[in-house]
Design a protein that fits this description.
The protein has about 90 residues and is an alpha+beta fold. It has a single domain (about 1-85), classed as YaeB-like fold (2-Layer Sandwich). It is about 35% helix and about 35% strand. It has helices at about 5-15, 20-30, 75-85; strands at about 1-5, 35, 40-50, 50-60, 65, 70, 85. Strands 1, 2, 3, 4, 5, 6 and 7 form a seven-stranded mixed β-sheet that branches.
């Protein structure tokens, strides 16, 4: 499946010093995925070095389109699951 990098995601990744190749690995390989109840987007959770990252993305018929990327914590992910914000 193709990954379509938006200019906004590229800007945010550069600003936050995230490597696109590593982010691609998270998007393609992480088993930890949720649906954000507020936006309806899928969210991939994975490691970028020692940093846990969340990558909200949209699906097209032939591509994944990551929207943004940000550092998160296991505590934040757990809270979002318990509150219903993230759905399995």
């Amino acid at each position: 499946m193709e990954i379509r990098w938006t200019s906004y995601l590229q800007f945010r990744a550069q600003l936050r010093k995230f490597d696109l190749n590593t982010l691609e690995g998270v998007l393609r390989n992480t088993p930890e995925r949720y649906t954000d109840a507020a936006t309806g987007r899928r969210v991939a959770i994975g490691k970028h070095g020692n940093t846990l990252v969340a990558i909200p993305y949209e699906m097209d018929k032939d591509a994944m389109i990551p929207v943004t990327v940000h550092a998160t914590s296991r505590q934040q992910v757990t809270y979002r699951l318990r509150s219903g914000r993230f759905q399995i």
